[in-house]
Design goal:
Blueprint (H helix, E strand, L loop, with lengths): L1 H41 L5 H18 L3 E2 L2 E2 L1 H8 L3 H8 L6 E2 L1 E2 L5 E2 L7 E2 L18
Antiparallel strand pairs: 1-2, 3-6, 4-5
Length: about 140
């Protein structure tokens, strides 16, 4: 009789090992999926306003290096050349990831027209708080 008990117990042990291995695999898969989902949900890239600030500073240095801006003065010849660029060409020129609009303001903060337009670049960018003044729109 002792032999029969040993055979039965060794059979249970075999199934217990399979069951525990399945539990370990299931828990591992759950943890991997949980970590991936929580990473995507709670991971936030750098602040978008900070990225916009960096990109606009890069654009300003490009404009200054291309002699469009000399302090507070604008080179009209270079400005006329720049107005002929399309949205895509401006994005390539400035290596911009998003849409681009170059506009000028006076000391009061009012928009200054460039060839009777509110700005140079991709149409549809709101330049006023009320949303009435769009990039490329007539002033």
């Amino acid at each position: 009789m002792k032999l029969a008990k040993v055979i039965v117990m060794s059979g249970l042990g075999k199934y217990a090992q399979n069951w525990s291995l399945e539990i370990i695999i299931a828990i591992s898969v759950f943890l991997v999926v949980f970590i991936m989902v929580s990473t995507f949900l709670f991971y936030s890239p750098e602040d978008s306003s900070e990225l916009l600030n960096l990109e606009s500073n890069k654009m300003m240095s490009t404009l200054e290096n291309d002699f469009l801006l000399n302090g507070n003065e604008v080179n009209n010849e270079k400005l006329d050349e720049l107005t002929s660029f399309s949205c895509e060409e401006l994005q390539d020129l400035f290596s911009a990831k998003g849409i681009v609009c170059i506009h000028f303001e006076n000391l009061d903060g009012s928009l200054v027209s460039v060839n009777n337009k509110a700005g140079i670049g991709c149409p549809g960018i709101k330049l006023s708080e009320d949303g009435k003044m769009l990039c490329g729109g007539t002033i």
